[in-house]
Write a sequence for this structure.
């Protein structure tokens, strides 16, 4: 019986090919686990879309205030706050302060223009949403007289 020995170079090549094949398998397994984990998060743990819209609660009417406009004009404005159903109470002082700050010094033509007034109202709603931490969902102008 004769035994032939494999050349040294061929034996080393077989070992390195096995090591490369093992690394490839490991990489594929790791990637597969990462993809499956991401898919699982997407379907089961992902937060649902937009937060639910707040439900309207009470409306709080505030006393009118007079605001100085540019050019010696003034604005008499009264607002009402549309609270959410989760709001406890609304102190109107923050809302009136924000209203005075927003409208003071503006031109009379600006506050009388319907498009500009709508922009100012949107800006006021955003400001009040921050000040009241989401408890105010809208603002209504119940009196709006300029001179």
């Amino acid at each position: 019986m004769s035994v032939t020995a494999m050349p040294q170079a061929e034996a080393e090549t077989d070992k390195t090919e096995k090591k490369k094949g093992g690394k490839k398998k490991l990489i594929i397994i790791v990637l597969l686990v990462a993809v499956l984990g991401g898919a699982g998060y997407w379907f089961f743990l992902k937060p649902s879309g937009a937060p639910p819209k707040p439900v309207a609660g009470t409306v709080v009417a505030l006393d009118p205030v007079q605001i100085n406009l540019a050019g010696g004009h003034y604005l008499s404005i009264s607002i009402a706050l549309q609270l959410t159903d989760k709001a406890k109470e609304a102190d109107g002082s923050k809302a009136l302060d924000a209203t005075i700050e927003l409208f003071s010094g503006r031109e009379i033509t600006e506050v009388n223009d319907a498009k500009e007034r709508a922009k100012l109202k949107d800006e006021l709603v955003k400001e009040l949403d921050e000040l009241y931490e989401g408890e105010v969902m809208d603002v209504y102008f119940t009196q709006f007289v300029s001179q």
Residues 56-146 form a domain with the Tetrahydropterin Synthase; Chain A fold (CATH 3.30.479.30).
